[in-house]
Write a structure and sequence with these properties.
15 helices; globular; Aldehyde Dehydrogenase, Chain A, domain 2; binds nicotinamide-adenine-dinucleotide; 504 residues; 7-stranded mixed beta sheet; alpha/beta
Length: 504
């Protein structure tokens, strides 16, 4: 996250996205055509793309149908044998070329991301580099999908375990990281030798389609990587019922994750899910206050709070509680709210009005139940998708914000007394994605890293994600892992082969 110190200039929100898009060198990035079987489809029906900051419709995209999804599945199946037969080195070369094209077009891709998602442009640029990193990572992982040789328990035999591509995969991706959540899935699938069909969030189609343009330019063959935008239920139904789709990867809400898991059960697909978070952020009274404030600020307000890793419950030990609240409140007050295309902006709009409204419900609930509120100052009236960065202190475990994910720029601070107590409170959630611990005690850090029930734990850091790490959650935060050497396994089957009768 990049925090600017320049004064917010009260920009004219209307027309900003449209003007930036008119200046794009890559006109094909705004064509809004779906990619099916190597062809760019304009579609009979078009859906508007909306700038969440201004509410302005600034582009439109093809609305694909279930019939087109059937065509895409057939095309993926046809492309499958040639893609899996290609050497991993050659597939890796194509993935690396794709990553290079993303980096070469990072500026224009970032404008698309900000225009339809809302995040500040500096964060959008960072997302492009982060997203390209997964293609590079998996290019190499595909070359290292070694399998195993097992010391045999049967005389005169050789036991092998091979990793083989699972078949055609599908990805349903969210709007908060409209580029990186595609490449994190597609990089792994393609490196494994699997074609993949992507259904992006309807809020952020242009980023997905631009990434598809670059995939084609990099040499990904027709049918191997396809992107179809449209109604989520209509487009996911064929993906769920078709036996040719062998793996399904989803990032989004736990509610939809449950539906997809259920839908995939009939054809027993391999399902990987990256769902909601509700991250606890534990601050003990032995820490450097400045570091804790900086860490909490980054962990809470990156992506304007619309991040599954966002610190949702900031537990602060009683000894430094008042000092932390004062310093954190001052830091939050300095955050600049505005259009993501304005370079002064730290916090953009919520991509969806429903997310902004959920923030307001949680704020009202907490204040009604006795929490204290302080928020960033704002000179201009902002449209409804904006939520001012807000601090709620004196939050208790009964308040909504302590019980469910916020997904917006509202920070909840809760006091605690003992280590034992805070571990129990942090773990008392059905979510188990990420957790943070700030302490100066090595012993305590080691104890907590063991007892905390989360898939990813940052000790004295708010920044730990990237291609090499196994991204994923415990409990109802998900199934499987993305990135790292484990991610490619979501798109592979193990095959055990026993060669017998080898004795001379
Ligand atoms: P969502 O789960 O509805 O959307 C994510 C993806 O699922 C999108 O592509 C959407 O089109 C698709 N989708 C929605 N309903 C579907 C259905 N019935 N069948 C098939 N696909 C479907 O998320 P949302 O409503 O846009 O956001 C709500 C909450 O979800 C957020 O507040 C946040 O808690 C969570 N979320 C988490 C992440 C994450 O990174 N883990 C990302 C986005 C949203």
């Amino acid at each position: 996250m990049v925090f600017q110190t320049a004064r917010h200039k009260n920009p004219d929100l209307l027309g900003l996205a449209r003007r930036h898009l008119q200046n794009l060198r890559r006109r094909d990035f705004v064509a809004g055509t779906a990619l099916i079987d190597g062809r760019w489809i304009a579609g009979d029906q078009r859906d508007a793309v909306v700038d969440p900051a201004s509410g302005e419709e600034f582009a439109d995209v093809a609305r694909c149908s279930a019939v087109e999804m059937e065509l895409a599945i057939a095309a993926a199946e046809r492309s499958s044998s040639a893609w899996r037969a290609m050497s991993p080195v050659k597939r890796g070369g194509i993935l690396r070329a794709w990553a290079s094209l993303m980096l070469a077009n990072a500026g224009e891709l970032a404008v698309l991301v900000t225009s339809e998602q809302g995040k500040p442009l500096a964060e959008a640029r960072h997302e492009i580099a982060y997203g390209a990193g997964f293609l590079e990572w998996f290019a190499a992982e595909g070359e290292r999908a070694y399998g195993e040789t097992i010391p045999s328990h049967k005389p005169g035999s050789l036991l092998q375990v091979r990793m083989q591509p699972i078949g055609v995969a599908a990805a349903i991706t969210p709007w908060n990281f409209p580029v990186a959540m595609i490449t994190r899935k597609a990089g792994a699938a393609l490196a494994a030798g699997c074609p993949i069909i992507v259904k992006p969030a309807p809020e952020t189609p242009l980023s997905a389609l631009a990434v598809a343009r670059l995939a084609e330019e990099a040499g990904v063959p027709p049918g191997v990587f396809q992107v179809l935008v449209g109604d989520p239920i209509e487009l996911s139904a064929p993906l769920l019922r078709d036996t040719r789709i062998r793996a399904l990867s989803f990032t989004g809400s736990t509610e939809v994750g449950r539906l997809l898991l259920k839908g995939a059960a009939a054809t027993v697909k391999k399902v990987s899910l990256e769902l909601g978070g509700h991250a606890p952020f534990l601050i003990f009274d032995d820490v450097d206050l400045d570091k804790a404030v900086k860490g909490a600020l980054a962990a809470k307000f990156a992506t304007s709070g619309q991040d599954c890793l966002a610190a949702n419950r900031i537990y602060v030990q009683r000894g430094i509680y008042d000092a932390f609240v004062e310093a954190f409140s001052a830091a939050i007050t300095r955050l600049k709210v505005g259009h993501g295309l304005d370079p002064a902006t730290d916090i953009g709009p919520m991509t969806k009005l429903s997310v902004a409204n959920k923030c307001r419900t949680q704020i009202d609930d907490a204040v009604t139940k006795g929490a204290r509120l302080s928020s960033a100052r704002q000179e201009q009236a902002l449209p409804q998708n904006f939520v001012l960065p807000t601090l709620l202190s004196g939050v208790t475990d009964e308040m909504l914000i302590a019980r469910e994910e916020t997904f917006g720029p509202v920070a909840a601070v809760l006091p605690f007394d003992t280590e034992e107590e805070v571990i129990a409170r942090a773990n008392a959630s059905e979510m188990g994605l990420a957790a943070y611990v700030y302490t100066d005690s090595l012993r305590r850090a080691l104890r907590l890293s063991e007892s905390i029930e989360y898939g990813m734990v940052g000790i004295n850091t708010a920044s730990f994600t990237g291609p090499p790490i196994p991204f994923g959650g415990w409990k109802q935060s998900g199934l499987g892992r993305e990135g790292s050497r484990h991610g490619i396994g979501e798109y592979m089957e193990l095959k055990y082969v026993c060669f017998g009768d080898l004795a001379a």
